[in-house]
């Protein structure tokens, strides 16, 4: 027997499929679809610029031009110089590259026979020390834990404030040691949307570096993983004051590659490659360039540079409406996990819990008919019903964190979709509580 409603018969008795149920995507922090202009740019590059960008005949020259334009567009998006941008496979590679590079640089300059002009270094025999915080993405946390376990580097994970979800510049500075070479702090958190005080951290680290230079201590460089901030709020490397910045295309309607910004690449700031090969990207990241993906990334960056304020205003309007509707519908049972006093946050992210013993985030989402969302970072999807370590770090109580759901809206999200989602959540809660 066919499931009721799955098929009906048309006037001639032919089986007709019922229209697919409407779905509402609110997981734009996990990934975004490609903008049509991005698909066009990629398709054109596949057709017209298939040559090797190092070749001098037209198909190769066209590819080179596309790559150069994309690099300029990325630089414009972040207020940097095109020669300071290199293309990578994505955020994970960019983050690993910064960390590995700083460790190699420290060993080259400061270990016994290092490049200190014949003088013994005050941090001789010390391991390079890196500072980060407890709510970073796994592509920062795991390489750092790995280096610590292998005894190649020492790492301090600074706790974020349980009051506002931010890491405090004061706590970062207090963690600095003689052998500290890198501070890496994300620009905005993927689960809560909280924006970190990166400009203040950079300013204070720069001031400290002047004193350290006098004592022959290594300069501390600052990296920020801007994966979640780009395309949602203005990002400018001059205001941020950072030495490195990670760019991830698929978070701003671009393809699944990325880039790394390095201030004064190879001149002011060292970068040691992880890969060795054919010399592309000035040897910093060799391998024949992926022209179509780079073309798409450049187009996505151009759209952000031109429209970021409009995207931000739209997303904030929809997200604020979502939070209003959630509170109106669920009243005191609604806990907004990402509204911290005094902390700025991304305009699109809403992390909330509906209180109740059967209402774990995963269970609620499984009962939703339309809503497509997640309980937190995609890379933590193996946590089962254990609450997100990020939310616990931010002071969200255990029982509330267990029920967390992360909704993140995008450029095309609407208030009508919000209404559908809130109704969907309501029926999911009724069903779960009816089962008790
Ligand atoms: C904050 C942050 N950094 C880095 C990444 C890694 O990007 P990718 O998985 O595309 O390498 C992500 C993606 O989820 C992210 O949210």
Automatic annotation (TrEMBL):
It comes from the Eukaryota. Keywords: Cytoplasm, Lyase, Pyridoxal phosphate, Transferase. The keyword DNA-binding does not apply. Residues 1-24 are annotated as: Disordered. InterPro entries: Aminotrans_V_dom, Cysteine_dSase, PyrdxlP-dep_Trfase, PyrdxlP-dep_Trfase_major, PyrdxlP-dep_Trfase_small. The keyword Lyase applies. Belongs to the class-V pyridoxal-phosphate-dependent aminotransferase family. Homodimer. Catalyzes the decomposition of L-selenocysteine to L-alanine and elemental selenium. This is Selenocysteine lyase.
């Amino acid at each position: 027997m066919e499931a009721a409603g799955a098929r009906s018969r048309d006037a001639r008795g032919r089986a007709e499929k019922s229209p697919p149920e409407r779905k509402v995507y609110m997981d734009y922090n996990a990934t975004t679809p490609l903008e049509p202009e991005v698909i066009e740019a990629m398709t054109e590059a596949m057709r017209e610029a298939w040559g090797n960008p190092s070749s001098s005949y037209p198909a190769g020259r066209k590819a080179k031009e596309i790559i150069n334009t994309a690099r300029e567009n990325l630089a414009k998006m972040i207020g940097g110089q095109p020669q300071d941008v290199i293309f990578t496979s994505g955020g994970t590679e960019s983050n690993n590259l910064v960390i590995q590079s700083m460790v190699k640089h420290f060993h080259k300059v400061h270990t016994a026979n290092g490049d200190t002009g014949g003088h013994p270094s005050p941090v001789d025999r010390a391991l390079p020390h890196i500072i980060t915080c407890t709510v970073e993405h796994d592509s920062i946390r795991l390489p750092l834990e790995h280096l610590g376990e292998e005894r190649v580097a020492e790492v301090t994970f600074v706790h974020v404030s349980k009051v506002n979800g931010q890491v405090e510049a004061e706590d970062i500075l207090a963690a600095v040691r003689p052998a500290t070479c890198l501070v890496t702090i994300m620009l905005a958190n993927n689960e809560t949307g909280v924006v970190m005080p990166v400009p203040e951290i950079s300013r204070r680290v720069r001031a400290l570096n002047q004193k350290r230079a006098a004592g022959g201590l290594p300069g501390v460089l600052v990296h920020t993983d801007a994966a979640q901030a780009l395309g949602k709020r203005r990002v400018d490397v001059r205001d941020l004051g950072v030495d490195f910045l990670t760019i991830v295309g698929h978070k701003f309607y671009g393809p699944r590659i990325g880039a790394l910004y390095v201030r004064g690449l190879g001149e002011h700031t060292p970068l040691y490659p992880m890969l060795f090969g054919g010399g592309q990207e000035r040897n910093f990241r060799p391998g024949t360039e992926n022209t179509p993906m780079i073309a798409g990334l450049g187009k996505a960056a151009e759209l952000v540079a031109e429209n970021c304020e409009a995207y931000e205003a739209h997303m904030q309007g929809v997200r604020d409406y979502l939070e209003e509707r959630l509170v109106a519908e669920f009243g005191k049972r609604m806990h907004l996990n990402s509204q911290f006093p005094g902390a700025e946050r991304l305009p699109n992210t809403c992390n909330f819990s509906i209180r109740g013993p059967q209402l774990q985030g995963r269970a609620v989402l499984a009962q939703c008919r339309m809503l497509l969302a997640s309980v937190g970072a995609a890379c933590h999807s193996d946590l089962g019903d254990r609450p997100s370590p990020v939310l616990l770090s931010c002071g969200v109580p255990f029982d509330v964190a267990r029920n967390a759901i992360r909704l993140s809206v995008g450029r095309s999200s609407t208030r009508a979709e919000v209404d559908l989602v809130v109704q969907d959540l309501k029926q999911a809660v009724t069903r779960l509580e009816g089962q008790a």
